[in-house]
Amino acid sequence: MMNNLGASAAGSSSGSGSGEGSAPRRNSKRPKYSKFTQQELPACKPILTPQWVISVFTLVGIIFVPIGVISLMASHDVVEIVDWYDSACIPQNMTNDKVAYMQNAATDKTCTRTLKVLKNMDQPIYVYYQLDNFYQNHRRYVKSRNDAQLRSADEASETSGCDPEKTTADGSPIVPCGLIAWSLFNDTYSFKQGNENVMVNKKGISWKSDRDHKFGKDVYPKNFQNGSLIGGAKLDPNKSLSEQEDLIVWMRTAALPTFRKLYGKIEVDLKANDSITVTLKNNYNTYSFNGKKKLVLSTTSWLGGKNDFLGIAYLTVGGSCFFLAAAFTVVYLVKPRKLGDPSYLSWNRSPLGY
Amino acid sequence: MAQDRPLLDPSPRPPPAPLLPEPPIRLDPAARSARVDRISFVADTPVPRRGSRADSDRLAASQRELSDDDARLVYINDPSRTNERFEFAGNSIRTGKYSVLTFLPRNLFEQFHRVAYIYFLVIAVLNQLPQLAVFGRGASVLPLAFVLLVTAVKDAYEDWRRHRSDRIENGRTASVLAGAGAGGRQFQPVRWKDIRVGEIIRIAANESIPCDMVLLFTSDPTGVAYVQTINLDGESNLKTRYAKQETLSKSVDMEGFTGFIRCERPNRNIYGFHANMEIDGRKVSLGPPNIVLRGCEIKNTAWAVGVAVYAGTETKVMLNSSGAPSKRSRLETHMNRETLLLSGLLITLCLVVCVLAGVWLRNHKDELDYSPYFRKRASPDDDSSYNYYGIGMQIFFTLLMSVIVFQIMIPISLYISMELVRLGQAYFMIRDASLYDEASNSRFQCRALNINEDLGQIKYVFSDKTGTLTENKMEFQCASINGVDYSGGKASLPGDGEAYSVVGDQFWRPKLLVKTDPQLVRLLRSGGERGEGMRAREFFLALAACNTIVPLTVETPDPKRKLIDYQGESPDEVALVYAAAAYGFVLVERTSGHIVIDVLGERLRFDVLGLHEFDSDRKRMSVIIGCPDKTVKLFVKGADNSMFGVIERSINLDIIQATETHLHAYSSLGLRTLVIGMRELSRAEFDDWQSAYEKASTTLFGRGGLLRAVAANVECNLHILGASGIEDKLQQGVPEAIESLRQAGIKVWVLTGDKQETAISIGYSCKLLTSEMTQIVINSHSKDYCRKSLEDAIAMTDRLAAMSLGAQNTITGTESQRVPIALIIDGTSLVYILETELEEELFKVATACDVVLCCRVAPLQKAGIVALIKNRTDDMTLAIGDGANDVSMIQMADVGVGISGQEGRQAVMASDFAMGQFRFLVTLLLVHGHWNYQRMAYMILYNFYRNAVFVFMLFWYVLYTAFSLTTAITEWSSVLYSVIYTALPTIVVGILDKDLSRKTLLKYPQLYGSGQREERYNLKLFILTMMDTVWQSLAIFFIPFLAYRHSTIDGSSLGDIWTLAVVILVNIHLALDVFRWNWITHASMWGCIVATAICVIIIDSIPVLPGYWSIYHVMGTGLFWLLLLGITVAGMVPRFAMKAFTEYFMPSDIQIARELEKFGNLNEATASEIPMSTFSQPQQGFI
């Protein structure tokens, strides 16, 4: 009480005296109240109750298993013919020196293969070539290009990064420069069903965005594959880069060392048990690095090509979620715990209860 | 005196002795400036034997005269001569660190003090080498530049604010005496920055003082000026400063005034000043009472005139303005351990890559020349190879490149995130309304920004008592006079008829009224000249006279009434003077030479012939008073142990014994006691004293020591008058706070300068001690006794532990199960224990005890006790205190908390956090500390995880690129990943997430244990997190990898999928761990994912980048969306399952408390049946 009196005396007397006193509560520093500053914003506080956990696991299972099944079905609907031709297309006498065979420009490398259609294939049927063990994602390789040069004719001399395929011996720039373009795939395929040619449409196999914006309409190949070392296909110097769709496809470097590239589209249906004769020119030298070459004819589904992985993965995840849900339920029933029971707090547990 | 603060602290306050070591003045200015960034009043090493070293230092210093080299010469009113050699700083100040020109180099230099930044710089530089160019130039420098930029902007803003305040400060004006102008000499306004040393400055009432000045004249004829030093040390009371008589006699316009001041070099001791002044050939010594310092304000004095002696950066306030020393938090120290582990992991990954790359190169040696994707031969005729330096070099380059690619493993953004998070946490602590103290109008202050999270791991709290546990608002409670105890029935407050002083037609009344004892009042009024009444009157006369209190009269609305407001530095003195006034001894007026006391209605003038200031060696103060009846009396008051040494025991032994009994009773009630004695001086004695006193007080150096000797000579053979008991009230909520801290598993130790009885009784009243506790008391006066006591104590604790073990047969953490032990030890014993081999034993005893109470400890002993724990355990310590005597303890502890209370700001200045009340400690530790720790610990782990996931993902890809370190993810995305894609949510969560509400945390203090046990950040958690990291990175990498195997997918598209997947996954990971979702959390979390998508889209819309348009293509396929969903679920399932199982079947306390918070109302009935605490004790009788 004495304090109160003292305080009130102080309150009444301040402000007088020498003219300036310490006025009480003058510019109080009390923090202003707001839900934000007091960290009291309305908030949701989720807690993993058994109900929640079981429902989440069940729900995931319910979603994943059907997706897995649908994906598997889609994958099974895809019909795929794969023909591994690189060793078969080497003449018997040359199997010991494949590289020499390939490097000999004089020999005719035409090779004929017969493919059996196992199931009906509806058009469009995509024709891919598949390279194995070809590191299109090798650091030296992916960097060896110049996108500016590809876009516009004015930048033809812009060859930085294109080593070692930058300029010709006399110093004039190569268009398109770089290892990627240099190593353009050059096997060709033509298809016959009986005696009838099956047309392969090679238009529209590349991305439209690439044709329109990445590869210039006024950029023409120059000095390309003129050196002593020929890497792959030559380009028609009279066609602008935006029309060289094989190049455009090739220049989208693959992510993985085994990859397919679109060669063209067959726009007729193939029936089961049809037999397709493929005449191919086995030009591309994959033998020097033990690469494999495959020809692939495939239909597609909404999921893309034939690949069971996604379906299996979804089924596995969904299945394990069901299992976890069941396991959790069992353990929950065997050893239930009341949520938020303070007697479980470590300092409340009786010492003998341990 | 052994109280927490000097009881009788006179003005000017002598620095507390053990803190004192005012170093001998050094000749070398470089050495001096090197010390500037440390607060000099703190001795670096704790010295338990108080004062001995300090004394010798001081003596050594005093032996020297101020030589010309050592001193600065200031010619009064002759600035040009003073500044001839341009050696003195001008008065302009500069607190800004940088100028426009120096900003960039200096700021960068300071920022690169961080080792982490150097690491990133080295990486960025490596990347510039053409062989190693993994990223483009821009991309590689960007993250570092970003972090540097953010910090630089922050620094620049702070510096700009400092510059602005400097400009304002420098632009203020003061009146300076101009030279002989046309109209004679007069004062003219001059801007502060143009003031020079030697100039005469006039300060009007309530004006700030522009520089340190020696007073020459004041409006008061006796030369007194009152200053308020609140800006300097935070003390709001007025202090008296004097102009010397020699200058007062001169004319104010300085006509014919010549002289110079020889003073010591600028130093940071704000309580010390040594100088002398020569006027007209006479040498006058100057001391601290003669100087007024920059930053103070003149009060209650119409004007004052002084001569500038220190200006600008050399003023004491500027020399003292340095920040708190920086500390590093426990969590950060631990974090460095994990950072090292991560570095090891990083190096392992790099080694794996480079070894595999070497193997690959060797296996494919023959193909490298012409294989389309390597082609090291530039042309067939040419032997030179393109960018190939042999397998050895290639491996080496691969190693360096892999370091560059995987650099992100060490999270660069973590450092800046932690700073931002701490800033945010500090913001919320400062803004917390429950940490605001109404009484002192002070908010919580965060002075150290890098130890927020330490607040969540405290195990020991070392608390000061006075001003920390108690309010430091003293109230006179009772007195023992002449062996009679007057603590009986309290009358109501004195009516209007008493305790006032009549001046003409005016009534003067003390501002504070104190309850009086009617019996004592009767005795005083009617006691006549009989011994008893005489003694009582002398007792109160001593209370009214023996002090340094300044009475100020305050007007009231009623013109006939005035209030007397007592201003003094020691709250005890103020309380005593108010008490004397209540009993009719009203101190009315004080000048430098005399005091006027209204003695029971009669105004009497007493000459103050001499005053011996309080010091901590003598622990008493005395005044020599010339009474109106021509007698000369010496009044002494001081601590009992000091006073009984100088009281004549041959007479009145019974009174002495009675007083001792009363003293014991008072202090066991928790009262602060003082003993008062007096002696009448004979003529001869007085003359002897006077000559010695004058000689001593004009000496320049060693004055303090000489004065002490003079005082000790005269303070002897005293008659005892009596003793007083002053109550220092407990602060609000202290017992509850201590109880909460104890439940939280924090040991509270009280270190006080008070007497043992006082300390114990305060211990009871704040529930630190309880009646069922076994007390071990160690009071020893020699080392052998100490050893023996400690051995006994160890035996006792062992026995008690064995007993409780036998009784319970289990070891539990609950305190109720065993007999609690309290250790009470005093400073004398500590002298023999600290820093000797006995420390170890003390440590054993002390840690076995529940409560430790140290009484009569010196400041450095406080620090020594903190060090005792800090050096021997890993436990975090916190020291809390309010006074200068707590500074060393505050700086020693891991976390120092200052109470901004009655005792100035020294403790606050030295502290890491400052607040207004002890009870806020509960909120600070249990709530904010808990939150900060939980958030920060989680944030660090999460940052490690987040970056490691990314690195592992890159690593898996590298295995499929012939170990050539290609990244499918664009370089911009990998650079932006940790600074933009995922940075914001962790910062938001680090600032805003709360595992439990404030209410719950305060209700169950035991939850604090989570931080003490380091539950949220430890090696096990780190390893678990890393295992999870590997799984998640596998999910992110291999699900798309396997799904796109043998497809036409291109690198950029797959890279985009991986980018989005990893960002989504780490954000979902964070989302799963967020406890509290408010709109900000939602916005940042989902916003970040959207921002990432936008960034990826933007990057893929740039035609010159190889990945042009990939994202649009890939987004159009169903597979893409199924993959993202699949990755997220598959990546999260193990973590989610683990979390669900542990939370449900092995719940932590925090988890249960969260459930309680959410479903609490369902279980209310059962909750109330469970006793939350078995700790209870009877309230000890106390007042």
Structural shape of chain A = extended
Number of helices of chain A: 9
Q: Please report the two chains with the greatest interface, counting residues with C-beta closer than 8 angstroms to the partner's C-beta.
A: A-B, 118 and 130 residues
Query: What fraction strand of chain B?
Result: 15-25%
Key features of this structure:
heterodimer; A: 354 residues; 5-stranded antiparallel β-sheet; 4-stranded antiparallel β-sheet; extended; B: 1183 residues; alpha+beta; 9-stranded mixed β-sheet; 38 helices; 17% strand; elongated; P_typ_ATPase_HD_dom (chain B); metal-binding (chain B); magnesium ion binding (chain B); translocase (chain B); ATP-binding (chain B)
Please outline the helices and strands:
The complex is a heterodimer of chains A (354) and B (1183).
Chain A (H helix, E strand, L loop, with lengths): L1 H12 L36 H28 L2 E5 L13 H6 L6 E7 L8 E8 L6 H4 L4 H5 L27 H4 L5 E6 L2 E3 L1 E2 L6 H7 L30 H7 L7 E8 L8 E7 L10 E7 L10 H26 L20
Helix pairs in contact in A: 2-9
Chain B lengths: L28 H6 L17 H12 L7 E5 L3 H4 L20 H9 L3 H14 L8 H35 L1 E5 L9 E5 L8 E5 L7 E7 L5 E5 L1 H4 L4 E5 L2 H4 L10 E6 L10 E5 L2 E5 L4 E2 L4 E3 L3 E8 L5 H4 L10 H34 L26 H17 L5 H20 L13 E2 L11 E6 L6 E12 L2 E3 L14 E3 L2 E5 L7 H9 L4 H15 L4 E6 L5 E7 L3 H12 L2 E6 L3 E6 L2 E11 L7 E7 L5 E7 L1 H7 L6 H16 L2 E11 L1 H16 L4 H12 L4 E12 L3 H10 L3 E5 L4 H10 L8 E5 L4 H26 L12 E6 H7 L5 H10 L2 E5 L3 H14 L3 E6 L5 H6 L2 E5 L6 H5 L2 E3 L4 H39 L12 H11 L1 H10 L5 H6 L5 H4 L6 H25 L7 H23 L5 H21 L10 H6 L2 H28 L3 H21 L14
Parallel strand pairs in B: 15-29, 15-33, 19-21, 29-32, 30-31, 31-32, 33-34, 34-35
Antiparallel strand pairs in B: 1-8, 2-3, 2-4, 4-13, 5-11, 5-13, 6-7, 6-12, 8-9, 9-10, 14-35, 16-17, 16-28, 18-19, 20-21, 22-23, 23-24, 24-25, 25-26, 26-27, 27-28
Family (chain A): Belongs to the CDC50/LEM3 family.
Protein name (chain A): ALA-interacting subunit
InterPro entries (chain A): CDC50/LEM3_fam
